[in-house]
Amino acid sequence: EGQLAVGTVVMNRVASPKYPDTIEGVLTQPYQFTPVGSGRYAIALAKEPDPSCLRAATEILINGKRTGPWLYFRTVNNIIQGTVIGNQVFY
Q: Full-prediction pTM beyond 0.85?
């Protein structure tokens, strides 16, 4: 559910005029996604994808699934209101 929500945020940003119009552009935009800045994104790209990630990507990219209207997510902090999935709030 969380992977689908993150994928939804990325694709909602691709569709928004406020953000780059490609997945790579959205993901690598400065200061947006912590794994990119920390280097974990590059490490993940070099590995074999996890089956649950492939399922989520298929649902998002091929089947067009979106689970909400969100453009943002972060760790739950009891300040930002939104849809809580796991330890993330999507808004």
A: yes
